[in-house]
């Protein structure tokens, strides 16, 4: 397939089934009736008590057992005792992780929000019992501090119930020492897991300022919190998020489906997109900060030798021969790094048919998961035929033209 055939501005690319997975995800969340209040309470307690301190020796990632259970399968004491790779795997699954945008969603201008993503460290922030704790996506503690969030400091603890706690999904922006809140999971003990993004953003913007958490730092409020501007993803909103000023360094754009619930793990209802104008890091770099000549991917080795992404269900990129596995001492569950060689990626009927992979070795032991399918494809197209801002704007314009035509007709 020639590079210019990989991307078409007005219709979904032939290499993607992202739209189908978006529709399935919306159907699943409509059928989901899990105990969201229990999920939020469990996560808050675990963030406060997780003992994955950097001073403790970590086990080898490949020797750690798989931790695939959801939060409700643990009790608080069990999760708090997780160490090293186990803690990283469990904790990273609690964040809602965006897929990479590899095609333009249908109804982008009506069903989606867009915002400029702050550069920084993604983390959960929990306020409870008179203190506030932030933890990175690998479970390690970032800060423990007093805050103006409900029950976040001893000065405001007496007016709140012991059951009152907050969970915010944030990005810590180091240049201005500010927590930019990109989502709200729980507020004053009320779970927002099963609320739509439309409601969560309304609640976030109306409640956060009321607490004083957006005020300048003080002895009882060490870090400033700020909301980010959320736009309807029409032409004006997309242009503002992409080219407009922001009080932080941008790292791409985030797109939220207005109907999306807060879903732990990868979801096609939240998307990230980047180009060189709104992000310093579009194409992945190596350990030295250089862009390698060939794209590199990290895949997980399964029991039968197949190489899988982190998706559920996973996408298979190839298979290792048993003699090679035995020769190199590899084991099921290992994360392995590959380069995509000259043969590239081949697709048939919108599905991956073959990948020309060259084994490089194991990634850093701090790595908890394989790459997702959408990340691999985004990085591949970024090198060959990137999805550009002009394509997003053209998709919005084409929908507007069709609607105008229908009205005239």
Automatic annotation (TrEMBL):
Q: Which Gene3D superfamilies match?
A: DNA ligase/mRNA capping enzyme
Can you give the residue ranges of the Snurportin-1 m3G cap-binding domain? 94-271
Which keywords, in A-to-Z order, does the entry hold? Answer: Cytoplasm, Nucleus, Receptor, RNA-binding, Transport
Q: What GO MF terms are annotated?
A: RNA binding
Can you tell me which family this protein belongs to?
Belongs to the snurportin family.
Which cellular component appears as one GO term in the record? cytoplasm
Q: Which organism is it from?
A: Handroanthus impetiginosus
Record's subcellular location:
Cytoplasm; Nucleus
Main localization, broad class: cytoplasm
What exactly does this protein do? Functions as an U snRNP-specific nuclear import adapter. Involved in the trimethylguanosine (m3G)-cap-dependent nuclear import of U snRNPs. Binds specifically to the terminal m3G-cap U snRNAs.
> Which superkingdom, per the lineage?
Eukaryota
**Protein's UniProt keywords contain Nucleus:** yes
Q: Which GO terms describe its biological process?
A: snRNA import into nucleus
Transport: present as a keyword of the record?
A: yes
The protein's matches in Pfam families, at most eight in alphabetical order, are given as: SPN1_m3Gcap_bd
Kindly list the organism's lineage.
Eukaryota, Viridiplantae, Streptophyta, Embryophyta, Tracheophyta
Recorded protein name is Snurportin-1
């Amino acid at each position: 397939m020639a590079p210019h055939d990989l991307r078409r501005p007005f219709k979904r690319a032939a290499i993607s089934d992202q739209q189908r997975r978006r529709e399935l995800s919306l159907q699943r969340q409509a059928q989901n009736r899990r105990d969201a209040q229990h999920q939020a309470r469990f996560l808050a307690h675990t963030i406060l008590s997780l003992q994955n301190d950097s001073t403790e020796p970590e086990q080898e990632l490949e020797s750690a057992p798989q931790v695939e259970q959801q939060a409700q399968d643990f009790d608080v004491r069990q999760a708090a005792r997780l160490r090293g790779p186990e803690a990283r795997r469990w904790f990273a699954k609690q964040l809602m992780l965006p897929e990479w945008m590899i095609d333009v969603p249908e109804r982008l201008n009506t069903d989606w929000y867009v915002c400029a993503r702050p550069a920084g460290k993604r983390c959960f922030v929990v306020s409870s019992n008179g203190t506030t704790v932030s933890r990175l996506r690998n479970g390690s503690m970032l800060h423990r501090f007093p805050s103006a969030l409900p029950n976040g400091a001893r000065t405001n603890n007496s007016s709140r119930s012991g059951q009152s706690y907050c969970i915010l999904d944030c990005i810590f922006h180091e240049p201005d020492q500010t927590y930019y809140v990109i989502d709200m999971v729980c507020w004053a003990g009320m779970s927002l897991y099963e609320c739509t993004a439309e409601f969560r953003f309304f609640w976030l913007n109306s409640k956060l300022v009321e607490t004083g958490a957006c005020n300048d730092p003080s002895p009882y409020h060490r870090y400033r919190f700020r909301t980010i501007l959320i736009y309807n993803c029409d032409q004006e909103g997309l242009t503002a998020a992409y080219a407009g000023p922001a009080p932080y360094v941008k790292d791409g754009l985030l797109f939220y489906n207005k109907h999306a619930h807060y879903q732990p793990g990868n979801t096609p209802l939240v998307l990230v997109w980047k180009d060189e104008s709104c992000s310093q890091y579009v194409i992945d770099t190596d350990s030295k900060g250089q862009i390698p000549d060939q794209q590199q991917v990290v895949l997980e080795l399964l029991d039968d030798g197949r190489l899988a992404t982190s998706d559920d269900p996973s996408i298979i990129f190839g298979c290792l021969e048993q003699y090679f596995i035995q020769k190199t001492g590899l084991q099921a569950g290992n994360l392995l790094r590959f380069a995509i060689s000259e043969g590239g990626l081949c697709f048939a009927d919108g599905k991956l048919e073959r990948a020309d992979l060259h084994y490089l070795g194991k990634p850093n032991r701090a790595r908890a998961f394989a790459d997702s399918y959408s990340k691999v494809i985004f990085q591949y197209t970024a090198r060959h035929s990137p999805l550009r801002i002009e394509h997003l704007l053209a998709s919005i314009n084409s929908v507007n033209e069709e609607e105008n035509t229908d009205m005239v007709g």
